[in-house]
Amino acid sequence: MKKPIALLLAMIISLAGCGGSAPPASTPGAAAPASEAAAPADAGSKVTKDNIKIGMVCITDPSDQGYTYNHDQGAKKMIANLGLKDSQYIPKFNINDTDVAATNAAINELISAGCQIIFANSFSYGSAMAEAAKEHPDIQFCHATGSDAHFNNLSNLHNYFAKIHEGRYLGGIAAGMKTKANKLGYVAAYPYAEVISGFTAFFLGAKSVNPNVTMDVIYINSWGDTQKEREVAEALINRGCDVISQHSDNVSPALAAQDKGVWHVGYNNDMAPAAPKASLISARIDWSIYMTMAVQDLLDGKPIPVDWGGGLSTGAVYMSPLNKDIAAPGTQEAIDKAVGEIKGGMMIFKGALVDNDGKPAVITDFNGKPIFTFTDENSFFDESSDFSAPSFNAVIKGINIIS
Q: How do residues 215-233 score in pLDDT, each as one tens digit?
């Protein structure tokens, strides 16, 4: 059952994504324009490998060993892929996505530095990126996790993400085969569609190999908070969860799992080196796939896609090596089988899914209006097929949100 596009448009506008701090979708005009900066000296001239400069605005810095670390790694790999110099990549780290002035200042500094293409990795940078795109039509603005590009009709504004729910499902298989308590725990950032999509895919992956599994979820209401992530991981472990996963930016849940003698499935980075006795596997995004394509398109004078979301089939989503020293026997084989099925077109969100009241699971827009219902075994929701930004936001039976 395919998502109705007209209804999805309404929903995507109102859903939030990873790396932002406010649930409403960004709207043009919400941020001060980024027009104060001087235009780069070569604006409007031909962009070449010799003169290109690439900027990136990031919510944290690579020391998080998570989301920004992965973005920075992608940018560095892109530089290597294209044979550019390290000095042609200009990152701005630790830019508070709730501080409009700080966001605009970072974008303006990159414009003044002569960047012809600017990436931004937090959802809440969306308004500032859209305004900057209006003010600087000769510069390309690429925004991760957002949806503004669809509705602003600007040739230089683009959105990108990845079908990370596919990787989450595979991580769930590792968790479902390892758990002894049949109870998983999930450190979640915010009650946004992207996070719900991820933990639901993880849960469904676990249930595909262990029908008896349940999962507790606790929100930390932050994309990254080292101490709070650890505290919530420990709280989940104290509730009897023996495999912990996360949609948060730091390695602290993995460390908590190791200290408490349970197991962990990570996100963004291979966390086995930090927690070798706990970390089973991690779902990851190779941002260089998109960044290389976008920069090469700019160099070739080709239009960059309005929206892009690669998955396992493109290599944009991949898994860290399975920690075979602690994984359950047969885990790699089960994951390999699922990879083949997903690449062959298997839907993650499918069937007669129900909520914790036993009613058909319903996906809604931000105002609570139903836009999709899992009515029977033939129902399926093709996540990220029309937009890269995730939109699955139903909480299904077996997943317990702990307040």
A: 999 999 998 899 999 999 9
What does the H/E/C string look like for the chain?
CCCCHHHHHHHHHHCCCCCCCCCCCCCCCCCCCCCCCCCCCCCCCCCCCCCCCEEEECCCCHHHCCHHHHHHHHHHHHHHHCCCCHHHEEEECCCCCCCHHHHHHHHHHHHHCCCCEEEECCHHHHHHHHHHHHHCCCCEEEEECCCCHHHHCCCCEEEEEECHHHHHHHHHHHHHHHCCCCEEEEEECCCCHHHHHHHHHHHHHHHHHCCCCEEEEEECCCCCCHHHHHHHHHHHHHCCCCEEEEECCCCHHHHHHHHHCCEEEEECCCCCCCCCCCEEEEEEECCHHHHHHHHHHHHHCCCCCCEEEECHHHCCEEECCCCCCCCCCCHHHHHHHHHHHHHCCCCCEECCCECCCCCECEEECCCCCEEEECCCCCCEECCCCCCCCCCCCCCCCCEEECC
Which CATH code fits 24-162+287-314? Answer: 3.40.50.2300
pTM given for the model: 0.87
Task: Specify the domain boundaries for CATH 3.40.50.2300 within the chain.
Answer: 24-162+287-314, 164-285+317-347+396-401
- 298-354 residue pLDDT tens: 999 999 999 999 999 999 999 999 999 999 999 999 999 999 999 999 999 999 999
